[in-house]
Structures are given as structure tokens and as C-alpha cells.
Design brief:
By secondary structure, the protein is an alpha+beta fold. It has twelve helices and seven strands. The termini are far apart.
Length: 379
């Protein structure tokens, strides 16, 4: 039984625990000695591991996606927890409970499945309801659909995440469809439930989350359209125009070509689906980022690389002027191998820019004088 989780690790802890190896890379230090970098994970998060000694010996004991026992010391480096690994061994498969190592949706699968069936039963358009019933009757598909994550890292990156995300978008679609005249509610609802089904084949999630060869070559949008087309062939009287509109929802739900969308939204339902998919994805991404933050009383989160900002953690207390300043320095974006990182260019000084600095300095001086006066009054 797993006794120590990533979320429980604190600085200076002597760690002795079991983890799943999500990534494993070996490199050469400046002094010519090899070292190994590991991404160790369990259901509560991940921590970086560094091996500085006996690298070749320890590297031969395990591979990526293996389960290992690790002993080492925890320390914080550049704001992130890190384990300096001293001992490591591979764990036997029979000692592993996968639920301890992969993140899982907080919503029970049975509850989400019941919600899915309820949404399908509420459809008043026979051909859309029949199509969804064909998917629900496919036990192999359903087994993957309830287990798959919705993404590798960005949003709903946990077992059951695909079903959770699809239901959230469908519930939003159900609400929006009732508020705007002219929206084909059942078309939108079907598209919401099926828009990401290609991810059951795009992603691998038996161990760490990654992409299958099929996923890398085709992507979930193309795979999803193929899956819908295969089910449509099982229905004799499904209207061709309805199938065309449904496939357009899947093909356009990323919104823009630069986001991997083969087509841009060209129906009212497609526009709505694009925005709702983006909305739920971003909300979950921010929530997950905040949930991973250490409970250190800081008012602001760490830097979020995808959204290029810090987030206020909403502690419930009124922020105090000058109590905490969000770090101004941005992390340097990692460069592609072989390319030099882009240099940050300082905006040229202008008269207005210099004036703004002058006003800021004056405001700062006045604020400090005010606090000094308040201190003297308290004394």
C-alpha cells in the first residue's frame, strides 16, 4: 500500500516512497559527468527527481512508465520541489494499484454515466438520440470513454477527464440552447458529447499520459469524425444533412486553423460549441493550476506558462497595499533544441514612458511617507 504521496512531500524531507516514472532523460553535466532527470508522479501530482551518482547503474534498473521505489532528500530549486535520489529500485507489478499513481476525476464514474444517459434520453430528435444510443451500446468504446483523460497536461488531465469535460460542455450547451432562438438543441448537445471522442484513440493512459502513434499521425478531430461516420453507417435512416452538420461541429470545435481546426465554425451551433469547449477547458486549467499551489499563504500563484500570467488565489482576505508584489520577471520560454532563445527587447524609452516612471516614483514616495506618518501616530 502506498504511504507517501507527492502532495505530502515537504522541503528537507527524507523521502522513501513509490512513484510512477513519467519521464526519464540522461544528460551530461558541465564537468563531464552524466546525470539523470526523472518526472516522478502519483495521483496527487508530480515531482522532479535528479540522480547525480551511479547514473549508469541506476538507469539500467528501470524504464519510463515503470513503478519505482525511491529514497532521497527533498529540496526546493527555482521554486519547485525536487528529489535528490540516493537509492532507486523497480517495483514488482503485483505490488501496484494503478489508482494510487494516476490522477482521477473527483466525480464518480457511475454518477457521470447516469448523467450522460439522462442527457441522451432528453433528446427529442430521434436520429440524434439513436446515434448516441449506438455509442452507449458499444461497450468497448464506453469503457475507454469513461477512463480516458481529456488531454495530456493542459486540462482535465486525469482518468475520467474526457467524460467529465464532455458532460460539462454538454450541460453548458443545454443551457445556451434554451436561451437563444434558432439553436438546434439536440444537434448542439450531440456535438458537445461527441466533440472529443477521438481522444480515446489519440491518447494513451494505461500508465503515464501520452500520445499514441495514431494520435500523432491523425489527431483526435479526424479520429472523432471517423468514429461518428462508422456509427452513422449502422443507422439506415439517419438524415444526410444532419450527419453533415454534426461532423462540421467536430471539425470546427477548435475554432481557428492555428489551433488545429480543419474548418472554422460556420453554423450557429458550431460557434457555440467552440466557445463552450474553450471556456470549460480554460476554467479547469486554471482550477487545476491553483489546486497544485503550495499552501504557503501567498496571495498569488506561481507563473502559468500556458496562460502567461499569475493568478490571484482568492484567500478571502483583503489584500494589503504593498504587502506582496507579484514577481515581474517572466520565466524564459524553453527554446527548441538547436535554436537560441529569443532575447527580450526592452521597449524604447519615450517621453510619455519616462513621465509614467516619474509619476510612479512620486506615488511610491507619497505612499511611503503616508505609512511613516501612520507609524508615528501608532507610537
Amino acid at each position: 500500500m502506498k504511504e507517501l504521496y507527492v502532495a505530502q512531500i515537504k522541503e528537507r524531507d527524507q523521502v522513501n516512497g513509490q512513484f510512477l516514472v513519467r519521464e526519464k532523460t540522461t544528460a551530461m553535466a558541465k564537468n563531464g559527468k552524466p546525470y539523470m532527470t526523472l518526472k516522478l508522479m502519483d495521483r496527487t501530482g508530480e515531482v522532479e527527481g535528479r540522480v547525480w551518482d551511479r547514473v549508469e547503474e541506476l538507469s539500467g534498473l528501470f524504464d519510463k512508465d515503470d513503478f519505482v521505489r525511491v529514497a532521497g532528500k527533498a529540496s526546493v530549486y527555482l521554486g519547485k520541489m525536487q528529489l535528490v535520489v540516493q537509492r532507486l529500485e523497480k517495483m514488482p507489478e503485483q505490488e501496484v494499484d494503478l489508482a494510487d499513481y494516476l490522477p482521477v476525476s473527483t466525480r464518480p464514474v457511475a454518477e457521470m454515466l447516469a448523467e450522460l444517459r439522462q442527457l441522451v434520453a432528453s433528446m427529442e430528435t430521434p436520429h440524434y438520440r439513436e446515434l448516441m444510443e449506438v455509442f452507449l451500446a458499444d461497450e468497448e468504446f464506453l469503457q475507454h470513454f469513461v477512463q480516458a483523460p481529456a488531454a495530456k497536461t493542459i486540462h482535465h488531465a486525469y482518468l475520467g477527464g474526457l467524460l467529465e469535460h464532455s458532460l460539462a460542455v454538454a450541460q453548458l450547451a443545454d443551457d445556451i440552447g434554451r436561451r437563444y432562438p434558432g439553436v438546434q438543441r439536440d444537434l448542439l448537445l450531440t456535438g458537445a458529447l461527441l466533440h472529443d471522442i477521438g481522444k480515446v484513440a489519440e491518447l494513451c493512459y494505461e500508465r503515464s499520459f501520452g500520445y499514441t502513434d495514431t494520435g500523432k499521425l491523425l489527431g483526435h478531430i479526424v479520429l472523432g469524425v471517423e468514429m461518428v461516420e462508422a456509427k452513422l453507417r449502422q443507422l439506415e435512416n439517419f438524415p444526410v444533412p444532419a450527419g453533415l452538420l454534426l461532423k462540421h461541429l467536430l471539425l470546427s470545435h477548435h475554432g481557428q486553423y492555428e489551433y488545429g481546426s480543419p474548418k472554422r465554425p460556420k453554423t450557429l451551433e458550431a460557434v457555440i460549441l467552440n466557445y463552450l469547449d474553450d471556456l470549460d477547458s480554460k476554467i479547469n486549467g486554471v482550477q487545476t493550476h491553483l489546486q497544485k499551489e503550495p499552501d504557503n499563504g501567498a496571495a498569488w500563484s506561481g507563473y502559468h506558462r500556458i496562460y502567461d500570467r499569475y493568478f490571484f488565489k482568492e484567500t478571502g482576505e483583503q489584500p494589503i497595499l504593498g504587502a506582496e508584489v507579484v514577481p515581474a520577471a517572466q520565466p524564459v520560454t524553453p527554446s527548441v533544441e538547436g535554436e537560441k532563445p529569443a532575447k527580450r527587447r526592452r521597449p524604447p524609452a519615450t517621453k510619455d514612458r519616462d513621465l509614467s516612471f516619474s509619476l510612479a516614483d512620486q506615488l511610491k514616495e507619497k505612499t511611503l511617507n503616508l505609512f511613516a506618518q501612520l507609524d508615528e501616530g501608532d507610537n
